[in-house]
Amino acid sequence: MARKTAARQIMLEGLWQENPILRHTLGICSTLAVTNLLVNTLVMNIGLIFTLTMSCTTVSLLRNLTPLRIRMMVQTLIISSYVIIFDIVIKAYLPDISEALGPYVGLIITNCIIMGRCEAFARSNRAWPSFLDGLAVGIGFSLVLFGVAFVRELLGFGSLFGYLVMPETFTPWTIMIMPPGAFFTLGIYVWLVRSFAGSAEPERLKM
Amino acid sequence: MNKRVYAVFYMFCLTLVFTSLVTVAKVVNEERIAVNQQANRQRVILTVLKISQAFTAPRDEIARLFASHISESEAGGRTIYSAHDPVSKEGLGHAFALRGIGFWGPIEAMVGVDAELSRVLAIEFYRHQETPGLGARITEPWFTEQFAGLSLVEEPGDEGFFTISPPAPDKPALELDAVTGATLTTRAVETFVNQELQMIKDLGRAWQKGEQ
What we know:
- The complex is a heterodimer.
- Chain A is an all-alpha fold.
- Chain A is built from nine helices and two strands, in the order αααααααββαα.
- The model of chain A has no long low-confidence stretch (mean pLDDT about 80).
- Chain B is of the alpha+beta class.
- Chain B is built from four helices and seven strands.
- Chain B has helices at about 5-50, 60-70, 140-145, 185-210, and strands at about 70-75, 80-85, 90-100, 105-115, 120-125, 165, 175.
- In chain B, a hairpin with a 2-residue loop joins strand 1 and strand 2.
- Chain B is globular.
- The interface of A and B includes residues 33, 65, 85, 102 and 104 of A.
């Protein structure tokens, strides 16, 4: 029973209370880069969730073996291996999307959320909670990205997942597909979420 | 065990395990990736020769168009992709692969030139490692479209067939707009595309002599 509650708590924290974008404003680079099309966002999210979950689990499994002094090096190795494997797989099976995402997939390696979770959670917790934590934070991140991408693709291209949904007379807002569009959307999004959800700041500030 | 020795040994083993994993993933998928890359290359060649405007055409359609339109030949140590209309046999143009050093790494491009080697049809920068959002914008249509129509007939000026400078209104036709914030990438493109166009011009001259 206690274990179940813990799992629930971890999921909630990842999805909401410690949502990397809404609460820590981490991982902004990919938020800006890939959110102008929902399809790109979807693949990026799958890549991030995969890498995050696998990296957290691996770091956690190795936590008692890894010397403290070289742990960052070890984490980087683990994270980059998973990202490269993911990159190879989409190059082989989803070449068009791989082409569209270009160098952004490789940039998952430097996504601060992954190393952040490895450092903050996985290296001092057991494998199962770490797996859940990675999954929850990954999904929490993805949901925000989807929100941003939804608005940007709808207003910037007039489409959703590539299907035109806006009437013919609609003039696309070109700025929404460019990086400034991501700043506006994300800024408004974080502002709305924080003001409606109350609890402006979590009681304990991390970092 | 000595702590330092352990750390080195541990890192070594871990690196071995993970690089093996990556290698396995790479080997298993190598063939598939090669096929995809070939399809991508064919698509680029057809695009710069203005044969398939549909950059989104399905893969088998691309392969079919490529087989019916394109013949490959060698000249001066490089491959030339020549396009012919499958019915009238009329020459539609030639495509050349270009390569230059960008800001972060090699830039690979494909340029299409008309059948007389007198005018640029289109250019695509299809592989590069430039900064996303800055140098990487050389792949965007507004940038590549500026190259269409460049003449290879006139003698190039001191600065080459074209120059690239910051965007401004009322610029001379041969001054293309640079990507803002990516001066070094743009300068690299300016240098290597000019060099390669000179090579194509020389080749055109050699062909004309051969015909006479």
